[in-house]
Amino acid sequence: MIDFTQKILIEKRSLLRLLVFALADIILIFLAVYLAFLLRFEGYIPSQHLSNVWGMGILALVILIPIFYFSKLYSFSWMYVSTAELISLVRATTFGFLILTTALLILRDQPVFLGFPRSTLFISYFLIILFSGGIRFLKRIYLQLFKGEREKKERNLIVGAGDAGEQILRSIQSAKHSPYLPIGFVDDAIAKQGILIHGVKVLGRIRDISRIVKKKNIEGLIIALPSAGAQIIREAVEQGRKAGLRRIKIVPSMDEVINGRVSIAALQEVDMEDLLGREPVLLEEDLVKNFIREKRVLVTGAAGSIGSELCRQIIKFQPQTLFVLDQDETGIFNIEQELKSEFSQVVPFIADIRDKDKIEDIFRTNKPQIIFHAAAYKHVPLMEEHPDEAVKNNIWGTRVITGAAVQFGAEKFIFISTDKAVNPSSVMGATKRIGEMICQTKNQKNTTKFISVRFGNVLGSRGSIIPILKEKIKKRETIEITHSKMKRYFMTTPEACLLVLQAGAMGQGGEIFVLNMGDPVKIIDLARELIKLSGLEPDKDIPIVFTEPRPGEKFHEELLTAEEGTLATQHQKIFIAKLSEIDEERLTSGLKKLEEPDNCEDKETIIKILKELIPNYAP
Questions:
Q1: Are residues 124 and 233 in the same domain?
Q2: What CATH number corresponds to the domain at position 225?
Q3: Is 0.85 topped by the overall pTM?
Q4: Catalytic pick among 420, 442, 449, 487
């Protein structure tokens, strides 16, 4: 009942808006024609031309009003009218005047149109655009001139005078209850210095933020640089902090900006992801589309951070079917519901990757062509305590999935690996390296192409360091860091997944792709930055102390062994590790040892066998 009533109200409002603006256009069109004749005859219309005014005015109304209606010039929001409506008005008026001119030429011998001055057509054309456009923009002009002055709003500086900055400004200016008052822009482009965008001036460069804040009494910063690198974002934030600003907002990265449209609703607090991982990822979209489009794709570990983001990226390339598999029932339910809102062909499976019969049944029934194997146990300290579980999931689970891929003719198998597999110091890293080795050996003698992709820490993934540090800061607890020199590579989840798709599309089988993670970040710097982002002072509000390394931890993670080195690919952020041949007999023998009942449950024996399989494993 409520929905029906709301529908009636909406329809009434739409009809009222149509009638009001149609009546306004009728008056304004006739007024424009009259003024055109008045201007043509310098303020006095001769009596013989009054019939021309009436004839041309009525003909203009008969032609233009229907064209305006079918051009949807009465189906707009008065609050959010934009240049798109103005362009539509110009097009409709131009089309209408072409018809009007033709009609007047055909009817020129009729008494009402005899001797009409042709120049009035051109004058009327421009006056109609001016009047009809003006009435549509009247509310926005009123809000910008008067409304903003009466309400107390936060004086803001927008960083970035590009498309995103312009869209943010337009959204602020048109929003009924926007809390922001844009005072100016800053942008490093020399060509933009001093220009006006919707009446707001570019006041300087990013390095001038401190000076502009003091001079213009700025209260907040809006960073509108969705495709900028992390270094530029950091510089803008640092400049804002130096000027004493606490309210700093940022637009989403390009991964999150839909169709290039940005609004004030999209503004969010600056986060660690913005300061570390906003380097743009350029995909070879046609290559990835050809790889995924109309294929049956399976993602294992689909409820996890990497698996779920892979699913979100995959559906953009229109697979035939996306199979999502995980043993986490709630996680699979959630990701299925999310994906189905955009892509209907999602098929969920609750399964343990170690369950050979169940996995083979899934493969036999559904014949996936591409497999992204993201299922794994990844928490280093836990796997040090439970190495038997790491072996079962990361080795035996991988063996089951790779075996099914070969048995049922999958085209490509992409194994999600980690930098911890390089010169491993942890059980988790060692088991992931063996996963890589299994893929290498499978690739040597089957039609399925096996590819591995290595990358480091993913920002914000479940159990990663940033959510842990945020929780400690929220509770004002002491932050414990292993060592002042401890460093880690970081990458955003969308960036990592996009590069995995690119690597999967590029791979010809047998490669281990290494993602360029940029420069490693000191954990101490990470912790201090997170404390500052929370509006607190490091070592004053939140203490930072150093502890002993946890089992399996390294000071520095590596993406390659000393022997491997890399080969460049066509993508600047993806390299290929130069690999040595895998001794398959030795690998098979070692895995058999791990399976023996006396060995598979004993921690010391497991580590000993892992060391035999991976000579550079140093627990």
A1: no
A2: 3.40.50.720
A3: no
A4: 420
